[in-house]
Structures are given as C-alpha cells and as structure tokens.
Amino acid sequence: MNIQAPNRVAHSYVQQLVAEPARVFPLLCPVREADWIEGWNPLLVVSASGVAEPDCVFTTAAEPGDAIWYVTRHEADAGFVEMLKITPGVTACRLRIQLQASAAGCDAIVTYMHTSLGVEGDAFVAGFTAAYYEQFMRDWEARLNHYLEHGTALAGARE
Description:
Layout: E1 8-17, H1 21-24, H2 33-36, E2 44-46, E3 57-60, E4 67-75, E5 80-87, E6 91-102, E7 105-116, H3 119-127, H4 130-150
Antiparallel strand pairs: 1-7, 2-3, 3-4, 4-5, 5-6, 6-7
C-alpha cells in the first residue's frame, strides 16, 4: 500500500455576474456551457434529463487520457453545484460553485481544488497559481457575462 501526503492546491474567486441566480444556474452545465464557451464540446454526456443533474457524468478531452467529470451535487434552489473531475494519472479535482444574489445580478463563488495523482499532476499543481487562476476566472466571468448580455458566445480563444 502506498499512502502519501497530498500535493494539492485550491483557489476561490468571486465572479460578479449580470443576471440573477435562477438565470445563471442552468448555464453551469456540460451541455449549456456550449452556449457561452466557444469551442466547448464534451465528448460524452450521460444524463437522464439531457442537462446537468445529480449523478450526471461527462467526459472532456485531456492528456494523457480523457477527463471524467461527475456531478456530485446539483441544487438549483440553493444555487449550488459540485463536480469531481478525474484526469487519470494527473489530478483529481473538486469544483464547487455557489451563486448568491447581488444588486447587479449574482456573485458566483468558484472554487477549484486539484490533488496530484503523479508526476504530471505535480507539474499541474505547481502551475495552478493564484495569478493563473485569477486570469482563468476573469476569462470565464467575461464569457458568461457576454452571453448573459448578448445571448451569444464571446468569440476568441480561451486562456
């Protein structure tokens, strides 16, 4: 048995979104993300309803093998979703998003926690800096707000 201390990194960011939680929450979905993220295209979505729900599973392209995502909690009334993302041999990730109403629409508290599963994961964890995460979250926030304001995906490459 090989038991190791975790090599892990976690960051949170508060996005300020221009719509109320009830309008934003359905967009936090592997199917609906294609509406607002140019180029988003999961390889497989396993869902009874056709969108995000508890126990929804989806896969995305990743190296060295496709990433497997599992929706562990999906609470529309509370504006809360939690997913696990496993990239075999690289990282295990927990993603939590909590929406809270605000005067301008809502805040989305987005937290990623990555745990290394090996040498490639160690490199990923080292590169998942606060500065990188802030840039990633600002891009996501801009794309989501553009869609909420214009109904179209923001053109251009993602960071």
